[in-house]
Amino acid sequence: LYRFDARPDPAAGPTKVADLAYQASEACLFQGLVVVGERGAPTVHAYDPADLATDRGPLTLAGGTFVRACAADATRLYVALAAGSGADVIVELTAAPALAEAGRPALPTGLGAKTRLLDLAYDRRGGQFYGLFVADGEVNATALVPFTMGGAAGAPVAAPFALTNLGTFAP
Questions:
Q1: Residue of 65, 32, 62 lying closest to 46 (CA atoms)
Q2: What is the Rg, in whole angstroms, of the alpha carbon atoms belonging to the chain?
């Protein structure tokens, strides 16, 4: 894991703070924890930012083959798992005292054949999620879909180009 200074010295670059015993695929922040998905596995790891060397997990989630995406609202972490076949699975997690499964909200209604969730982000101001949903076999999305967790999808917003993740999306 690497830490980027809020006011970086352009010549210094990021600071390496920990070696991982696995390859990381997805990372997100949740209630003061750095949560990292393990590449090729349905497993998440949680680290305290002050001690990025101590794993407060891992937690392996049933029903998927690997962690595709994660995002948190004010109280819960949502992890999208790629399924071996069929629709992706969303797992709702709590933080205290360690990551624990709290539920499995359904994919939003109104998506048709778009049952794969490439990435998601939460808009704190609007209180809703945004997702990149695709049909089986598609590798990028051309629209950003607002939705409520376990509820309905809103009107898609056309993307100016094909998207594979929302890493730079800041609603």
A1: 32
A2: 16
Give the whole-angstrom CA distance, residue 51 versus residue 130: 31
Question: How many angstroms from the chain centroid is the CA of residue 108?
Answer: 16
Nearest one of 64, 155, 161 to 117, comparing CA atoms: 64
Tell whether omega for the bond before 97 is within 30 degrees of 0, i.e. cis: yes
The answer to whether residues 48 and 78 touch, using CB atoms and an 8 Å cutoff, is no
Full-model pTM: 0.89
- Report the largest interatomic distance among the alpha carbons of the chain, rounded to a whole angstrom: 49
Name the amino acid, one letter, at 21.
Answer: A
Short-list 149, 39, 137, CA closest to 85: 137
Q: Can you give the pLDDT of all 171 residues of the chain as single tens digits?
A: 666 666 666 677 777 667 788 888 888 889 888 899 998 999 999 988 777 777 877 899 998 899 999 999 989 999 999 987 889 999 999 987 788 999 999 999 999 999 999 999 999 888 899 999 999 989 999 999 999 999 999 999 998 889 988 865 544
